[in-house]
From TrEMBL:
Transmembrane segment boundaries: 21-43, 55-72, 133-155, 186-208, 245-264, 284-306
Organism in which the protein naturally occurs: Scleropages formosus
Name of protein: Trace amine-associated receptor 1
Presence of keyword Endoplasmic reticulum: yes
Gene transcribed to yield this protein: TAAR1
GO molecular function: trace-amine receptor activity
Cellular compartments annotated: Cell membrane; Endoplasmic reticulum membrane
Length: 331
């Protein structure tokens, strides 16, 4: 901070370091936008993929795409230069979008874990519990509550409550766009938006894992005792359910790995006198952003239907008549 006029102090970084940072951040933005755009296209286009789980994955991909398109470019400018050139209103909009999309991601993943729990643990009730209305409720809730939470907190300045004097004296500067939380707001927002949903998701997937193992043992026993060929279809269906659950558990695990360091930093920094270096906080933010880049790569690596759909897109067959009816996997 410039003590003479209260303006933001531009970071003194060499051109080579700035170029390296911009190259890394630009690559992350391109991967995030292109990967999630492909995920959106695949799930939207092929009717076979219009399922409850994929509807939530589609909405999550939209969330990740918007993060890459609207939030990450401005964050890159701030990370490299250290200053904000777009004005105070744009700063509040950017911060609100950042918090909203990050919170929306964990809401989506929470609902996906609930949907997987019902599919694996209570399959007979799945059709009655998970339908178009339930899925719509999950998607709307995943967007609406984070939006109200993020925009309400930033524009009402609840994130500053209790530490206004410290913020004005030690943090605020003209031309800056710091993301600041008081002790109360840091604890409340981190626990509500990350730690509680994260623990719930972790507990749900532990339960799913135990039930899936039990199902596997029972299927093997039935196959050995009955040796009935008609069971093949049911067994394949259950195997597909378990594989889908494992993949989505990996998505959740990657999310927690990427964002946990940042939220631990956020919740502890106000209680240690804001002594954590801003450059470390900024690096952890970008480590969290990388989660939005990883998700499409996980789909491409683990889902054969995603790879098959990509080949259809690249070959141009997606423009064929009735291409949306193409089968990507056997029922």
């Amino acid at each position: 901070m410039d003590k003479l006029n209260g303006s933001c102090e531009k970071l003194a970084r060499s051109l080579s370091l700035q170029f390296s940072m911009l190259a890394f951040m630009g690559l992350a933005i391109v991967i995030t936008m292109s990967g999630n755009f492909l995920a959106i296209t695949v799930i939207s286009h092929f009717k076979q993929l219009h399922t409850s789980t994929n509807s939530l994955i589609l909405s999550l991909a939209v969330c990740d795409f918007l993060l890459g398109a609207l939030v990450m470019p401005c964050s890159a400018m701030r990370s490299v230069q250290g200053c904000w050139f777009l004005g105070e209103l744009a700063c509040k909009l950017h911060t609100s979008m950042d918090i909203m999309l990050s919170t929306s991601s964990i809401f989506h993943l929470s609902f996906i874990s609930v949907e997987r729990y019902i599919a694996v643990c209570t399959p007979l009730q799945y059709q009655s519990m998970i339908n178009s209305v339930t899925t719509l409720f999950m998607v709307v809730t995943s967007w609406l509550i984070p939006a109200i939470f993020a925009f309400g907190m930033i524009f009402s300045e609840l994130n500053l409550k209790g530490s206004e004097d410290f913020y004005e004296t030690n943090v605020y500067c003209h031309g800056g766009c710091p993301v600041f939380f008081s002790q109360a707001s840091a604890a409340f927002s981190s626990i509500l938006a990350f730690f509680i949903p994260g623990l719930i998701m972790f507990g749900i997937y532990i339960k799913i894992y135990k039930v899936a193992r039990s199902h596997t043992r029972s299927i093997k026993q039935q196959a050995q005792q009955l040796k009935v060929e008609d069971e093949n279809g049911s067994r394949l269906s259950r195997q597909r359910e378990r594989k889908g659950t494992i993949i989505l558990a990996i998505v959740v695990g990657v999310f927690l790995i990427c964002w946990t360091p940042f939220f631990l930093c956020t919740i502890t920094d106000p209680f240690v006198g804001y002594t954590i270096p801003p450059t470390l906080v900024d690096a952890l933010v970008w480590f969290g952003y990388m989660n939005s880049s990883f998700n499409p790569l996980i789909y491409a690596f683990f889902y054969s239907w995603f790879r098959r759909a990509l080949r259809i897109i690249v070959s141009g067959r997606i423009f064929y008549r009735d291409s949306c009816q193409m089968k990507l996997y056997s029922q």
